[in-house]
Amino acid sequence: MEKGISFLAQKRTICLEGNLINLSTPVVMGIANVTPDSFYAPSRLSGSDAILARTEEIISQGGAIIDIGGYSSRPNAPEVPVKEEIRRVCDAVCLVKKKFPLLPVSVDTFRSDVVSAVVRNCGAIIVNDISAGEMDEKMFKTVAQLKVPYIAMHMKGTPTDMQQNPSYHDIRNEIFLYFSKKLQQLRLLGVEEVIIDPGFGFGKTVDHNYQILSMLDDFKIFGLPILVGFSRKSMIYRYLGVDSEESLNGTSVLNTVALLRGASILRVHDVKPAVEAISLVEKVNSSNIA
């Protein structure tokens, strides 16, 4: 970072339904996709039993949050009608919240109508928006009215075109300007519970992704929790010459790097290895010799 830029103290809690999620030690967000076409096939869930089994697995392995998605954001994924996304997500969220009322639930959606329907039918959630309001102009006002935590992710383009030769003149400045504008808009609306996500794999080449990871510390300038999500993504398996099934080790390595550079939340398919990475990094951080 340039000299003269001061960092805000990084926010260490998120408030959901009056309860604080403590991020002073990083936490794991387990992925649960109620879609038939998510890029990582084992993450696809169908039916109540599968959803509850996945939730129990996330909890038993040490996950702190479940992230439920009803619309695949992989490039060229087919469009899902709003009513169908609402049905998928509401069914899953209500099921999870009824069986596990203390587990924080995040919903992966860019549609404000989905957010409103889930909160109305199931209760408060964290909103995980891959477009940070770009794909639905009502999103920020909806989040403000419902007073729910919000994850703002950086994406250049849309899921349809984001990987068609993405380019940046100055990747750091472009992404920082993007977040500065988004955060100002959210604050003017009174949205205080915000998490930022650099958006690994969304409108970035493999090299762009690693450039962002190398400067992850710099995102602390915003004073907000940082979420990272590169679980089994192409930035790992393409670079290593493997497939998504063989990319768990690479995911664990990048999660560890992210933790050492200030990540607060790891969004993953494989919860136990991520929890172990946090435990080991915390041990290293607490073992300094004076």
TrEMBL record:
Entry's Gene Ontology cellular component terms: cytosol
Catalytic activity: (7,8-dihydropterin-6-yl)methyl diphosphate + 4-aminobenzoate = 7,8-dihydropteroate + diphosphate
Keywords assigned: Folate biosynthesis, Magnesium, Metal-binding, Transferase
PROSITE patterns: PTERIN_BINDING (PS50972)
SUPFAM superfamilies (alphabetical): Dihydropteroate synthetase-like
Gene3D superfamilies (UniProt xref): Dihydropteroate synthase-like (3.20.20.20)
Enzyme Commission number(s): 2.5.1.15
Pathway involvement of the protein, from the record: Cofactor biosynthesis; tetrahydrofolate biosynthesis; 7,8-dihydrofolate from 2-amino-4-hydroxy-6-hydroxymethyl-7,8-dihydropteridine diphosphate and 4-aminobenzoate: step 1/2
Uppermost EC category: transferase
NCBIfam families: DHPS
Protein name as it appears in the record: dihydropteroate synthase
High-level lineage: Bacteria, Pseudomonadati, Bacteroidota, Bacteroidia, Bacteroidales
